[in-house]
Amino acid sequence: MIILRLFVFWPLLLASYGVFAAEKLLVSIDLIRHGERTPIIEIPNSPYLWKEGLGQLTERGQQQAELLGQELAQEYWSSMDMQIMNKDRGEAIKSMRFSSSNRERTIATAKAFIKGIFPAGDTDKIVIKIEDDELLITRPSRNPISIFKLYWWKRKVWKALLREQEAELLHWRTISGLALENFEDLGLFADNLFVRRLHQIPFPQGLSEETANTIIALSDWEMVELFKRAEVSEPMGKRFLEQVDTIFKERKLKHIFYFAHDSSIMAVMTTLGVPLNKAPDYLSRLNFSLFALEDGRQVVRIKFNQKFIKGYPYQKSF
Q1: In this structure, are residues 58 and 39 in contact, taking their beta carbons and an 8 Å threshold?
Q2: What pLDDT does residue 74 have?
Q3: What are the strands of the beta sheet with 298-304, ordered from one edge?
Q4: How far apart are CA 192 and CA 280, in angstroms?
Q5: 241 near 3, Cβ under 8 Å?
Q6: Rounded CA gap, 126 and 109, in Å?
Q7: Low-confidence residues in the chain, pLDDT < 70
Q8: pLDDT digits (tens, 9 = 90+) for 6-22
Q9: Is 130 exposed, middle or buried (0-12, 13-18, 19+ CB in 10 A)?
Q10: In the chain, N or C terminus with fewer CB closer than 10 Å?
Q11: What percent of the chain is modeled with pLDDT above 70?
């Protein structure tokens, strides 16, 4: 597989890939995290009524996604292109595909993003392809050795937390009404606190801002370390990179947009050999672009949130 095989040539000189030469974009693939959402679970001892429901895109998240669509439209197409596209959307979308995981918040993000690209007229008829979970949802390897390694790692880090903060955990259980028996439980608790902090909604009674920040930081640390592990990231990461290779090889479309999750981006970055040290923010974007250079060479560049990550020469025949 080209992406997995060729990234070992990193670091590469930017000039050697035509950064300063005339070039033409052949194919662009964007993996985008959904917009701002509500918490995945509620805190039993301190419930809050989220008008959108749990795990759903917020109004602000919808606005953010629409704005990103506008920004990428300006990046990919000229003002004249946009005028033509808005007059004949049916023709324009023949060169595009919009795909999403089978989650309401990612589908809603895709719809808002499309509206940002095509601000004139009705966009509800534009098809959003719902992908199989294996392509965009991270699931650990089913290999027995990998399962065993992951189990012992999770057990080790949770026992370490118990040794250091057993009294605090008991207090957090009492305040929240949550079992908090592992990092998965703690992560869902932390997620609720993070969203409350984002929206300036009071924390549960008896939980200080400092303590909430500690819980959020602990969860963030565990998530980052978890997705640095190959047995967690590579099953989905390899599948996605294989899909990227296929799209570059076939070249049936020019612009493909995948709407997924922070874990999706983290898995692909780890598989690329560039693991993240922080979970991606809402609407973070991992981009794979194939360019044709003036001298006939073709190159791939990978960017995360507009920052160059990797590049390699590309040949269609392989």
Answers
A1: no
A2: 86
A3: 128-130, 96-100, 255-260, 23-33, 285-293, 298-304, 307-314
A4: 17
A5: yes
A6: 14
A7: 1-21, 78-92, 121-122, 316-318
A8: 444 444 444 444 444 57
A9: middle
A10: C
A11: 87
Please report the DSSP string for 253-317 in residue order. -SEEEEEE-HHHHHHHHHHTT---SSPPPTT-EEEEEEEEETTS-EEEEEEETTEEEEEEEE-S-
In this structure, the dihedral spanned by the alpha carbons of residues 247, 250, 251 and 257, taken in order and rounded to 10 degrees, is -20
Nearest residue to 193 (alpha-carbon basis) of 210, 179, 169: 210
| Structure-token pair, residue 177 | 């009404």
Q: Which amino acid is at 63?
A: Q
Residue 249 and residue 54: Cα distance in Å, rounded? 40
- Structural domains of the chain, with CATH: 27-139+231-314 (3.40.50.1240), 144-227 (no CATH)
User: CA-CA distance, 229 to 38, in Å (whole number)?
Assistant: 28
Predicted local distance difference test score (pLDDT) of residue 83 = 54
Residue 132 is given by DSSP the state: P
Residue 173 DSSP symbol: H
Neighbours of 144 (CB within 10 A): 8
User: CA–CA separation, 311 vs 280, rounded Å?
Assistant: 21
Cα(251)–Cα(123) distance, rounded to whole angstroms?
A: 25
For 110-165, how does the pLDDT look when each residue is reduced to its tens digit (9 = 90+)? 999 999 988 876 677 789 999 999 999 999 999 999 999 999 999 999 999 999 99
Which tokens sit at 64?
Answer: 């953010």
